[in-house]
Structure formats: structure tokens, C-alpha cells
Amino acid sequence: MNSENNNYLITLKNLTKRFGKLAVLDDVSLSFEKGKTTVIIGPSGCGKTVLIKHIIVLLRPSEGEVYFHNERIDNLHEKQLAKVRTQMGFLFQSGALFDSMTVEENILFPVMQHTKIRDRAKLQEIAKAKLAMVGLDGFQEYYPAKLSGGQKKRVALARAIALEPEVILYDEPTTGLDPIRSDVINELIIKLKKDLGITSIVVTHDMKSATKIADRIIMLHKGRIEADGDAESIQNSPSQVVQRFIKGEISEGDIQSMQVSFEDIKTNGKK
Amino acid sequence: MAENQQKVTMIELFGAGVIRSVTNCGRFARFQTDSLFASAAACVSPKTYSLIWNQMLAIGVLSVPVVMITGAFVGMVLAIQAYDQLAGLGIEEHLGVLINLSVVKELGPVLAAVMLAGRVGGALTAELGTMNVTEQIMAVRSMGTDPIRYLVAPRLIACLLLTPVLIIYADFLGIIGGYLISVPYLDINSRAYWNFSASGVELWDITIGIAKGFFFGAAIAGVSCYKGFHCREGAQGVGQACTEGFVGSFIIILAIDFVLVVVFKAIYASVWPVKLLL
Ligand SMILES: Nc1ncnc2c1ncn2[C@@H]1O[C@H](COP(=O)(O)OP(=O)(O)OP(=O)(O)O)[C@@H](O)[C@H]1O
Ligand SMILES: [Mg+2]
Prior knowledge:
A: Rossmann fold; 11 helices; about 25% strand; B: mainly alpha; binds adenosine-5'-triphosphate; binds magnesium ion
């Protein structure tokens, strides 16, 4: 048990999260292996973002525990969490770039906050290197408002990896990118794992990207884990929900309710 | 039965309301203590000086014109309003005391603070509120930086330090405005005007006017930042937070003013006998 435990960097135990009466996560237990890429898939609104925010304790669980390096972190004070968080990079679904700062200042924000590097040339070099990784070198002086959605996402990714953290949490890294750019991000995630041994947890809708990068795929549905395994076992999963999700098919029930509302519109129109 | 149920829900509603207000008060108090400690820490850490400097530019320097205009009009209006009453009593040469005392003690500080609550407070709430709804504050947290230390402390310090300075500007222009109306326009003897003013306005009066500035500045920054940090989602949430922030700072400014007047009066009363002895 203990030796097994050591392979796990992050563990969620019986995690439940409620907003008011709505239970978004319902008794989720999960462990994430060191140096592996775990992909979390699931339909929109099933609680993927909520789950991933618990890992870095931006949200606190209603019930259950979160462990990092076998130490409980969900009950830590914000000040103590600061140290844990510098070991993690978090890519927000919305990017969450600081819009009063240039791209370069955004990327250097964590560096300025947590390292003693103050040499201008050295800092510029860091920003340049990170931007080059996401294919945006030359955009240093831009303000986020002037970037496209996909460009913002990539700058946010560059910021998330600026401190070279142990774990990177990606909330939909490829959404809003063209297929080629998506593949650049996929390669980046794979490269970070291979070269630096970084543990990645990726939330995505993109099955193609998921199959490419994942060592393990977890499907979340209605706040519970619906399926858990490598890409192949997910493809062959007997579960209806999983099959429908990966094939992108709508369920009979949904079709019927859509049909009914169309009929309603038609009959109302005739009257 | 139905009536019984009605009563229960009324009690429940009342209870929920009480719980909500107590929670909000607690949250507000915690936010303020956190900001206070963070600001104290920021004062001794050179890393934040550049942030404070930037805020001082945005909050202080750019507010000088509006505060000066406020002050000038207060002085001018007071002169016109008070002249008739004093002239009726035949003591219009005392106009200087009345104007300058009111400007320096009350109207300058309070109106300048209200102006700043609108100009600075509104901008602070809108900025932090937008950062909140676009997850930028959460992003600061996610990178292991305390948003209160990084965002609130520099703003609080800048407001605290600069409101008294801006009040001095308002006072100055108030005095000039009052003079321009009284002497050239209402034909009061210039020497008498200044002599009465000098004998009526003490250093103490000016000091308490400026001292109020520290409290007003802290109140404006405290309330506006709190509202920004806790605003609800969406453009409407930010707008509402700005309104609440302004109304909240306005009321707190008036309340603090009242308390300070009482306190300063008590201090003055206890210090006065000593001063006579000297
Ligand atoms: N701060 C919050 N307050 C209340 N409810 C919330 C909050 N955050 C999320 N929720 C609710 O939790 C549910 C899951 O949200 P979440 O953002 O995790 O979905 P998601 O799986 O990331 O979806 P998507 O793929 O569209 O991003 C939603 O029904 C949402 O309404
Ligand atoms: Mg999401």
C-alpha cells in the first residue's frame, strides 16, 4: 500500500463539492501518478473545471480531502498554500491573463513574485523562451486585449509553465485553437513529460488530443467517475455514456425532447 | 396549517437574512484586518514600492484637478451665502473666519473625500471587480501570490497617504475661492478679512481637517476594494458593486466624520487648559 502510494503525486479522497444544493462533485476518489499525463473528459457542465480547481485548492471541498506529496493540502491556510501552488502551474479555461499588463509582464509575473532574478536581460530571455514554446515569440509587447482567443490561451499556457512547476493543470488547452496549433500544444505536453518529467492533468473535450497525449483517461459524468483507463480501454468501454461521448452522438432521450420542442414551435406557429 | 407554514417561512427568511448579514460583516471585518496586516507588511518590503508608486499616480496625481475645483467652489459658495447674514448684523468683516474655518475643518475634507470616493473608489471597485469576474484574482492566487498583498495593500497605502494631501489642495483652493469672492467682489477690506481669519483659525483646526483625511482615505480604499473582491458575476455585478461601493464609502465617510468630530472635541477640551498655561 505504502510503496504504491509513493507513485502518486496527487490524491483526491471522497471529494464532494456542493454549491448551495447542487452537488457538482459527488464522492470522487482519484490518484494521479507522478510523471504521467492524465486526461479528464466529460460533457460540458459535468464539473471538470471544479475538479481541477480543487487540486490546486482554488476551491475548497465540501467534504473529502486533497493530498499532494502525501500531505493534506485542502485544509491549509492560504499563506501555506502559496508554497504548494508555486509547484503547480494552472492554465485557466478563460486564460485569465492580467489585462493591464503586456504579454511579457504576464509571463514574468510568477517569476518576479517567486524568484530573485532581477536582471533585465535574463528576464527577457525567460519570457522569450516560454513564448517560443507556444509559438508566440515576438508578441512580448502586446496587451491581451489585442490577442485572439487562441493566442490568449497560449500566452496563459506560457505563464503557467514559467516557473517550471512539477505539475501542470490544463483546463481545455486546445479549445479555440486550429487543428495544427492544437497539435503543437499536444506535442508540448508530451515533450514536457518526456524531457522534464512533468506530471500533467488535462481537462479536454477534444478526443483526438486526449488519445494522443493520455497515459490514462478519466471520464466524468454527473459528478462521478464514469470510466477510468488507458485510451484503448476507454474506446472499448461498454458504457453507453462513454461510447456516446467519444463518438459525439446525442442520446435518444435528448433527441426526443428536442423533437417535442420543435413540434411545439410548429403547432404554435400554425395557430 | 397553511398559516403555520407561512409563519415558519417568514421566520426562516428572517433567520436567513440575519445569518447572511452576520456572515457579510465577518467577511468584511476579515478582509479589512487582512488588508491592514498586508499593508503594514508592504510598507517594509521594497518589492511593493513600485506598485504603491503606480497607484499613487493613478489615485493621487490625477485627482488633483477635480479636488481643486471642488474646493474652489465650496469657498466661493460659502462667501456668497454667508455674506448677507453677516452684513445684516454688520459684521461682514468676520466673513473670513466663517469661510476658512468651515472649509478647513469640515467642508474641504468631507467634500474632497466624497469626490475621491466617486473618482478613486469607483475606479478601484470597477477594476478589481472586473479582475474578479474574469478570474484574474483567482489567477493571482493560483500562482501563489496573496491577492490582498498584491492588489489591495498598494491601493490602501496610496489612498491613506494621498487623501490628506489632496485635502490640503482642496483647503487651499477653498481659501482662495472664498477670498476672491469676499474681497474683490463683495468689497470687504482685505486686511480685516485676513486678520479675523488668522485670529479665528488655529493650527489645531487645520490639523484635524487633514487628520480626517487618513481615515477617509482608508475608508474609501477599504470599502471599494472589498466590494470589488466580492462582486457578483457579469457586467451587472460589477456595476452594482460600484454603486454599493460608492454609497458605502459615502456613508462611512459621514459616520467617521461624526465620530472624529466628537473625539477631537474631547481631545481639544482636555488639551486646552494646558495650552492656556503655556
Ligand atoms: N462558483 C460556482 N458557483 C455555483 N455553481 C458553480 C460554480 N462553479 C461551477 N458551478 C456549477 O458547477 C457545474 C460544473 O461546472 P464546471 O465549470 O466544472 O463545468 P465543466 O465540466 O468545466 O464544463 P465545461 O466543459 O463547459 O467547461 C456547473 O453546473 C456550474 O453551474
Ligand atoms: Mg470547464
